[in-house]
Amino acid sequence: MAHDKQNREAIQKRLSRLNGQVQGVSRMVEDGRYCVDILNQTAAIRSALRAVERMLIEDHARSCMEDAIESGDQDRQRVMFREVVELLEKVRD
C-alpha cells in the first residue's frame, strides 16, 4: 500500500534535509575540518536517518500490516510479520 500524502511529504522533507547534511559533511572533509566536528555531524545524520526509518516502519504497520490483518489471510499476515522482524533486525544495528 502506498504511503499517504502527509507521510510521504514528511519523509521526503526529512530525506531532503539529510541529503543537505551529507553534502555538508562532504564539504567539511574536503575543507579539512576538525575530525570531531565531522563525527558530530555524522552522528546527527545517523539519528535523522533512524527517525526516517521509524516513520517508515510505523507507516508500514499502520497501512500494510493492518491491511494484512483485516484481510484474514494468514499466509499474508505471516509474510508481513517476518518482513517487520527482518526490518527491525536491520535497523537495530
From TrEMBL:
Gene3D superfamilies per record: Metal-sensitive repressor, helix protomer
Highest rank taxon of the organism: Bacteria
Pfam families on file: Trns_repr_metal (PF02583)
InterPro entries per record: Metal_Tscrpt_repr, Metal_Tscrpt_repr_sf
Record family assignment: Belongs to the FrmR/RcnR family.
Name the record gives this protein: Metal-sensitive transcriptional regulator
